[in-house]
Amino acid sequence: MPTQLLTVNAITKGFTAHQVPIVKDISFSVYPDEIFALLGPSGCGKTTTLRLIAGFEKADAGTIAMEKRILANRTVHLPPESRGIGFVFQDYALFPHKNVIENVAFGLRKASKRAKRERALEVLRMVDLTGLQTRLPHHLSGGEQQRVALARAIIARPKLLLLDEPFSSLDPGLRQTTREEVRALLKAEGISAILVTHSQEEALSFADRLGVMKDGALEQIGTPEAVYRYPKTTYVADFLGQTNFIYAHVKNGRAQTPFGRVKVEGEASGDVLLSIRPECLKIMASDVWGSGAKSGRIVGQMFKGHNLTYCVEIEGEDYFVQTDYNCPYKVGDIVMLKAISAVAVTPSNRSEVDGV
Ligand code: ADP
Ligand code: MG
Q1: 139-162 pLDDT, tens per residue?
Q2: Which of 186, 240, 283, 293 sits between 20 and 30 A of 87, alpha carbons compared?
Q3: Which residue's alpha carbon is at the smallest distance from atom 19 of ligand 1?
Q4: Do residues 103 and 215 both lie within one domain?
Q5: What DSSP string runs through 200-230?
Q6: Residue 299's domain spans which residues?
Q7: Of the residues 176, 203, 229, which one is the last residue of a structural domain?
Q8: CA separation, residue 95 to residues 99, 132, 165 (Å)
């Protein structure tokens, strides 16, 4: 592993209006050229974490360092403009009475007028806004405003860019293409970034690594594939997509389930809670594998274009299975499910221990 660009170590932050800290003992690192995402539901402390890193808020405890330089700890608090960090705010925060080039040039403080203009034109080219220099923000589309905010944030060549839900106010159609363009730009320019989002799809497709947040704390950090395929808790499994939870006994890496015997990833053993994604189940007319699967009835189906999800009731419990779009089964059919793989998860809440 290369040395870290940003190190966040055990930061905690509370506001007097709240009884408990909003950010609880958060630690993670961002490596050079890496795109990291903080993923979690609204109100879990994502924006506060970004604001602490940017220097708009002061942590109650913990250390933030960039390369070998301390940005914040118990005694140090560098102002935002001294941190070498760019910020794209959720609402873009453009100056309404400044035109595009003035908004962008604002991001470059110490430079001659001419140098500012030249660099502003350069970054406007990078974000594909050449020709719109003299427009006012309210004469731009949402996507264009977002690119102005991005240009302003990168004009001073920050080592790290912080992006707070930058795609959430774009139309769904524009969201994906903009996301791909921004990712390509960051990679081409070698800019490291932290994206904050409540959208699992966005975090999984945009980030090289991500941290899943719950109630101000980080629940799991890993690559998109690792957190999706090997969630450690019920919360992470659930937040990253649909899943089936089931109690089972694991022995020698295998468990007997209503979907037959299944291989359990990792080192779990004994009585555990398993998470089995809908795409890790196969639907079949009978137990052709002889694996001991129980039969059930299809009680619902959701057509999603490229695939189909059935809801199958087995012994009074509903399970979700994903199949090809042209799968022939229909509601009411008696079927069996076969599990391909499963992963043991720790219950995140007390209620989940008492009954899923
Ligand atoms: P997220 O970005 O994940 O939606 P935030 O970090 O914005 O979450 O907010 C987390 C919690 O902290 C919320 O309950 C919010 O009301 C509270 N909060 C954020 N900023 C302040 C503040 N300046 N004063 C008091 N409470 C705040
Ligand atoms: Mg927020």
Answers
A1: 999 889 999 999 999 999 999 999
A2: 240
A3: 48
A4: yes
A5: HHHHHHH-SEEEEEETTEEEEEE-HHHHHHS
A6: 243-353
A7: 229
A8: 8, 15, 19
Output the CA 233–ligand 1 centroid distance in Å: 24
Dihedral of alpha carbons 69, 185, 89, 152, sign: positive
Question: What's the CA gap between 295 and 260, in Å, rounded?
Answer: 10
The pLDDT of residue 291 is above 80: no
Say what the pTM is: 0.92
Question: CA torsion sign, 328 to 333 to 336 to 337?
Answer: positive
Between the CA of 278 and the centroid of ligand 2 the distance, in Å, is 30
For the segment 205-231, the average pLDDT, to the nearest whole number, is 97
Q: Tokens 């506060």 correspond to what residue?
A: 48
pLDDT band at 198 (very low <50, low <70, confident <90, very high): very high
Ramachandran quadrant class, 235 (left: phi over 0; alpha: psi -120 to 50; beta: rest):
alpha
pLDDT at 172: 82
Domain boundary among 204, 229, 254: 229
Structural domains in the chain (count): 2
Q: How far is CA 184 from CA 35, 158, 168, 256, 337, in A?
A: 11, 17, 19, 45, 41
- Residues with C-beta atoms within 5 A of ion ligand 2: 47
Q: Which amino acid is at 191?
A: I
Distance from the Cα of residue 164 to its chain's centroid = 12
> What pLDDT was estimated at residue 1?
60
Whether residue 45 has its Cβ less than 6 Å from ligand 1: yes
H or E segment and range at residue 262: strand 260-265
- For ligand 1, is residue 62 a contact (CB within 6 Å)? no
CA-to-CA distance for 294 and 259, rounded, in angstroms? 6
Question: pLDDT averaged over the chain?
Answer: 92
Q: Residues, the chain, total? A: 356
* Tens digit of each residue's pLDDT (9 = 90 or more) over 311-343: 999 999 999 999 988 888 999 999 999 999 999
Alpha-carbon distance of 256 to 267, in angstroms, equals 16
Return the H-helix or E-strand segment holding 236.
Answer: helix 234-239
Specify if 237 maps to a domain: no
Q: Parallel, antiparallel, or unpaired: how do β-strands 160-164 and 192-197 relate?
A: parallel
